Amino acid sequence: MTAQSTTPTGPTSTAPTSTGPTLTSPTLTARLNRAQPYALGLFRIVIGLLFACHGVASLFGLIGGTAIPAGTWPGWYAAVIQLGAGLLVLAGLGTRSAAFLASGSMAYAYFNVHQPESLLPLQNGGENAALFCWAFALLVFTGPGALALDRLFGAAQATDTQTHEEQGTPVTA
Prior knowledge:
The chain is mainly α. It is built from 6 helices and no strands. Helix 1 runs antiparallel to helix 2 and helix 1 crosses helix 5 (127-142). The radius of gyration is 24 Å and the shape is globular. It starts with 25 loop residues before the first helix and ends in a 6-residue tail after the last helix.
């Protein structure tokens, strides 16, 4: 309960009190901002794992899937992309490139497999394709977040570049 005075008499009036951070408080915003790379990293890991599981199910017939015969267009190639890109995104290695490939493959799946049946994903069974497409598109623009192998190799590369710049030696790509 907050206490408020009906007459503003300076030091005797009391302002509303708060028991903790609110959704608009700078403290909560700062905490959420500090957690953002970790939330993005966790998002990347879960999306990569789920995508790789689809690839495993389609390629090997495991975890409730049915194996697609090798070389079958487009299903087998989609499963290879699902497994490969899913594992790369899961590990955070080449995240943006793998996510770009995965997003494109899911856009293809949606528009060529699902959308001809009906316009809306709920009607044509394309929810997974649409969600994966947009989730991977997000990772293309945001990067891998925390806990990614990209960060390890990127940090080593940034350190090498900084060392060369400090020594005045040219950096070759």
